[in-house]
């Protein structure tokens, strides 16, 4: 990655045209070929950019541009659309390059796998006296997130989502229909568990005889969130 702080102007041409007049900006040229133009304000968003696939060519300015003080020009051209970003550099204040290596990617806290694991360790959130049969219980149409037993020997299938919508309820309905055919598991009831459940999903779940449980993720981690748990 190359980081350049320079006094520059920027022109974008292609499906749209845009112009940034002469000012001091940060130019970020990444290993994937993309170029981002940042100012000191405007939060994290670049003022202008070119996304890959693209190539950067350094050009010698023509006589008129050189007379106006342009030292060099960067032309970044998109390989598919032909859109071009032309950066005219008047003064370079900082220029460094860094090899960042392969990034492992963003690891999100509170994804469905985390919720499923915590819920498997705290099945009392679903109800008292329940025991865990298995996580990712296999079926012919996909795994059920959690399979539980109640004190009376009944089976509870739990579908876990971060945000629960109608699709999640439909998914659990299909699992329940399939599991209910197994005499070793029947009767099977369903619980739809999520950090947030949309009103339409709650209505559909109630119509299907499925109970909804809103999960307090921070509370389940042992961090007091200040929000009451809803059962």
From TrEMBL:
<dbReference type="InterPro" id="IPR002793">
    <property type="entry name" value="Endonuclease_NucS"/>
</dbReference>
<keyword id="KW-0963">Cytoplasm</keyword>
<dbReference type="InterPro" id="IPR011856">
    <property type="entry name" value="tRNA_endonuc-like_dom_sf"/>
</dbReference>
<dbReference type="InterPro" id="IPR048301">
    <property type="entry name" value="NucS_C"/>
</dbReference>
<dbReference type="InterPro" id="IPR049173">
    <property type="entry name" value="NucS_N_sf"/>
</dbReference>
<feature type="domain" description="Endonuclease NucS N-terminal PH-like">
    <location>
        <begin position="2"/>
        <end position="104"/>
    </location>
</feature>
<comment type="function">
    <text>Cleaves both 3' and 5' ssDNA extremities of branched DNA structures.</text>
</comment>
<feature type="domain" description="Endonuclease NucS C-terminal">
    <location>
        <begin position="111"/>
        <end position="230"/>
    </location>
</feature>
<comment type="similarity">
    <text>Belongs to the NucS endonuclease family.</text>
</comment>
<dbReference type="GO" id="GO:0004519">
    <property type="term" value="F:endonuclease activity"/>
</dbReference>
<protein>
    <recommendedName>
        <fullName>Endonuclease NucS</fullName>
        <ecNumber>3.1.-.-</ecNumber>
    </recommendedName>
</protein>
<keyword id="KW-0540">Nuclease</keyword>
<keyword id="KW-0238">DNA-binding</keyword>
<dbReference type="InterPro" id="IPR048302">
    <property type="entry name" value="NucS_N"/>
</dbReference>
<dbReference type="Pfam" id="PF01939">
    <property type="entry name" value="NucS_C"/>
</dbReference>
<dbReference type="Pfam" id="PF21003">
    <property type="entry name" value="NucS_N"/>
</dbReference>
<keyword id="KW-0255">Endonuclease</keyword>
<keyword id="KW-0378">Hydrolase</keyword>
């Amino acid at each position: 990655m190359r980081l350049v702080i320079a006094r520059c102007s920027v022109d974008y041409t292609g499906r749209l045209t845009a112009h940034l007049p002469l000012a001091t900006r940060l130019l970020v040229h990444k290993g994937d070929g993309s170029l981002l133009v940042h100012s000191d304000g405007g939060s994290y968003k670049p003022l202008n950019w070119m996304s890959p696939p693209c190539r950067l060519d350094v050009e010698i300015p023509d006589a008129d541009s050189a007379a106006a003080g342009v030292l060099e020009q960067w032309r970044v051209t998109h390989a598919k659309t032909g859109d071009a970003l032309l950066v005219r550099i008047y003064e370079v204040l900082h220029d460094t390059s860094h090899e960042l290596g392969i990034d492992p990617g963003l690891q999100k806290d509170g994804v469905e796998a985390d919720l499923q694991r915590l819920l498997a360790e705290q099945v009392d959130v679903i109800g008292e006296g329940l025991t865990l049969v298995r996580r990712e219980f296999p079926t012919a149409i996909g795994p059920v997130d959690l399979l539980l037993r109640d004190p009376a020997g009944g089976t509870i299938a739990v579908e876990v989502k971060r945000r629960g919508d109608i699709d999640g309820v439909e998914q659990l309905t299909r699992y329940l229909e399939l599991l209910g055919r197994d005499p070793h598991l029947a009767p099977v009831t369903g619980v739809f568990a999520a950090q947030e459940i949309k009103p339409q999903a709650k209505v559909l779940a109630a119509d299907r005889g499925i109970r909804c449980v809103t999960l307090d993720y921070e509370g389940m981690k042992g961090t007091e969130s200040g929000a009451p748990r809803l059962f």
